[in-house]
């Protein structure tokens, strides 16, 4: 039963079309602190794109990678800039390829995963959940090497290819619908519910 | 396209049925957008679609967003758009297909409107309803008695 009484925000979350993904993308720029007493030392500026839930974690991951890859510690370094990177076209659907490195219980492995979504942030958030489910790896065990929108001819996962193009059409054969609000949920019903709405 | 034989059979059998496809008009059946019409702009995967529901009335409009198919009830109405069509193209296509007109003419919308009208009745409306029912019952019973007498 659809009725006006049950509309608008009864089920909790505000719905304005804005998706707040768990992971956001940050561009972090940092360098070794230049030091007068040790003479001029090479203070190359490094820039990284980091996926993290917030700026604090982003900065932390930045230093994790800096000390691993560039011999710069947080104690000796400084962050020059941290900006959030927003999705250029959040209302369009694309296929995102994620190249990554993750730790299993017995070693490190490379992976390539593909997700169809409207933004990189959403695809990466999905990836973390997916990889936690399938490989039991956590946020700290996963390193994202590269993310990119993948053009159709370069797509590698067959299950994503099913939804491309303008001729995608499929029915919903067995629909188990839920009541529009929990108030209409019934513990006992007289008849089995209708599940075929294809006509 | 990589389909399993079973899904290919389902799709072959569903010619002329309600399908999840670009341009399909749907009704939101759950959440804050309950009762609003949207059009499928693109299919993300088997569970989610990108939808948009432009409407002159801001209370009935739905912003472009991803919606799970679980929240959508498919209608028999379709409009002709390419995947990813933007709002102006979509509005034109909806006008060309007369989406709103076809929807309002159908029994689904009429049934919803009846429920809406009944739910929004005030006490005086309910009184008028009661009087109308009594008047009708009186007329019917009078005619019945005449027929029974014959």
UniProtKB/TrEMBL annotation, chain A:
Sequence ranges assigned to domain Large ribosomal subunit protein eL20 in this UniProt record: 24-146
InterPro entries linked: Ribosomal_eL20, Ribosomal_eL20_dom, Ribosomal_eL20_eukaryotes
One GO MF term attached to the UniProt entry: structural constituent of ribosome
Keyword hit for Ribosomal protein: yes
Coiled coil: none
Record key words, sorted: Ribonucleoprotein, Ribosomal protein
Origin: domain of life: Eukaryota
Gene Ontology BP terms: translation
Similarity-based family: Belongs to the eukaryotic ribosomal protein eL20 family.
Name the record gives this protein: Large ribosomal subunit protein eL20 domain-containing protein
Biological classification of the source: Eukaryota, Cryptophyceae, Cryptomonadales, Hemiselmidaceae, Hemiselmis
From TrEMBL, chain B:
InterPro entries attached to this UniProt entry: Rib_uL2_dom2, Ribosomal_eL14, Ribosomal_eL14_dom, Translation_prot_SH3-like_sf
GO biological process, one term: translation
One Gene Ontology CC term in the entry: cytosolic large ribosomal subunit
UniProt keywords, alphabetically: Ribonucleoprotein, Ribosomal protein
Domain of life: Eukaryota
UniProt domain Large ribosomal subunit protein eL14: residue ranges: 63-136
A molecular function GO annotation: RNA binding
Stated family: Belongs to the eukaryotic ribosomal protein eL14 family.
Protein name: Large ribosomal subunit protein eL14 domain-containing protein
Species this protein is from: Hemiselmis tepida
